Predict the 3D structure of the following.
Amino acid sequence: MTLGLPPRPDPFTIHIISPQPRSEQNLVYPPSQASIPRITVYTTLPPVLVLVIIRLWSRWRTRQLGVDDYLCLFGAAISITLCGFMLAQYSNDVYDRHSSDVPISAIAHSQYDEFQIAVIVT
């Protein structure tokens, strides 16, 4: 005995938002700008680390470590942490695509459940 409910929609073929008119929808290989933050981190962080290490090593050798050196080390630690968070956030390519090119299945299940609740309520 069936209840006459419509079949469950496929989350791999439903957009997060409806596509704009006259735009090409591409859920499989959409254009992405995920490489821009990665290239930025990969090209700027290594030289910064090398320069900080050279600075600390030379100041340590001359026994002239000061407050500015500790602040430089603190800033490098903050930069490493920020770059790590940024790379982790951009690892799944969801944040770099237009919302009409992201299927519902690409977001976390808890967010999908919240989205379903929001759709049911509205």
Q: What stands out?
A: The chain has a mean pLDDT of 77. The first helix runs from residue 35 to 61. The two ends are 29 Å apart (CA to CA). The CA atoms of residues 4 and 62 lie 82 Å apart.
